[in-house]
Amino acid sequence: MLAVAVSCQPRDRYVTITGFAQGGTYAVKFNMKDVKVSPEEIRDSVDAILVDIDNSLSGYNKNSLLSRFNAGEKVAPDSLFSDIYAKSYEIYETTGGVVDVASAPLFDLWGFGFTAGELPTAQDVEKTLNSCGMSRLGNDIGYVLENLGNLRPKLNYNAVAQGYSCDVVARYLYSVGVKDMMVDIGEIFCDGKNPAGKPWTVGIDSPVDGNNELGAEIQGIFRAPQGPHGIVTSGNYRKFYVRDGKKYAHTIDPRTGYPVTHGLLSATVVAPDAMTADAYATYCMVVGLEEAKKFIEADPELECCLIYDDEGAFRTWCSSGFVLTSMQ
């Protein structure tokens, strides 16, 4: 679908395109000012990009390069696969193994991956953990394919793929002259100004268990800073199950093989790009409140809002550049 909105500024013409991708919907809003191609061409190109990403990186598409790689095939990686792999390895090193895309079997084992699973034994966890990890792969996907065969760890890009998709779409929009944009593919990338001529705003969902409808319960509103930014929230309030009174969250610590059990409920990270924000939001959710604070405060390019449980009450910690308004 394509809609056109006219702002109050001369020559500005904002267009919104929406569709389905990656198991949900997407929305891309952008200013056509000084753009030389038509909105229809942009819509078709965005759709084509998202199809290419699905055919390369989706673990739910059984014919994708990722699915075939995980099945042990010697695939020929395309530019998307090579790019996200290299960036994922950099993130793996930066986070000390906390964000590890080569831990797919652990997510499957606990029922949060591409196959069903639930409540494994300690022996199951230990055995699976020993077969995972980017430490067994290295940063060269070509070497992996040539030398490891079907013994290589399986990959799951869920911690970075939606952010990466936002960045790829944004790169295309820049290439056709777009300066003001918001790309929302489950995660968000934005730059420039909104139709009102102001910075883009993003609602931060309240991390209430079962809050599955985006925007239904808002904890606060964040106004994006100037320039290009990825804005991503990760939390344990949508994907989880309860067995014998205990909650098992979808955030798995790849260092231990177990779901996290701390009181951090959600992390919203602002970074120069959406893939980085996506990865570091996951990092925060794995390490918990105190380690997340230290990590964010040590990097001047990052801002963050952490919402955590304090003896049954929601508490919020925000870095100095993250101003949350309209708190409930």
> Which outline best applies?
globular
Indicate the CATH class of the domain at 199-328.
Alpha Beta
CATH architecture field of the domain at 199-328 = Roll
Strand content: 25-35%
CATH topology of the domain at 199-328: T-fold
- Rounded to an integer in angstroms, the radius of gyration calculated over CA atoms is 20 Å
Helix fraction bin: 25-40%
Say which CATH homologous superfamily of the domain at 199-328 is assigned: ApbE-like domains
Looking across the biggest beta sheet, what order are the strands in? 1-2-3-4-5-8-13-14-15
Question: Biggest sheet, in brief?
Answer: 9 strands, antiparallel
Protein structure class: alpha+beta
What is the number of strand segments? 16
Distance between the termini: 33 Å
What is the succession of H and E elements? EEEHHHHHHHEEEEEEEEEEHHEEE
Number of helices: 9
Poorly predicted sequence stretches spanning 5 or more consecutive residues: 4-10
- Overall pLDDT metric: 87
Question: Any overview of this molecule?
Answer:
The chain has 328 residues and is α+β, with helices and mostly antiparallel strands. Among the domains are: 65-151, ApbE-like superfamily (T-fold, Orthogonal Bundle), CATH 1.10.3980; 199-328, T-fold. 31% of the residues lie in helices and 26% in strands. It contains 9 helices and 16 strands. The protein has helices at residues 39-57, 65-70, 79-94, 104-110, 122-129, 141-147, 161-175, 274-287, 289-297; strands at 2-6, 13-21, 24-31, 181-184, 188-191, 201-205, 218-223, 229-235, 240-243, 246-249, 252-253, 258-259, 264-271, 303-310, 313-318, 324-325. A 9-stranded antiparallel beta sheet has the order 1-2-3-4-5-8-13-14-15. Strands 6-7-16 form a 3-stranded antiparallel beta sheet, with no helix packed on it. A two-stranded antiparallel sheet has the order 9-10. A hairpin with a 2-residue loop joins β14 and β15 (313-318). The longest helix is centred in the first third of the chain and has 19 residues, at 39-57. The radius of gyration is 20 Å and the shape is globular.
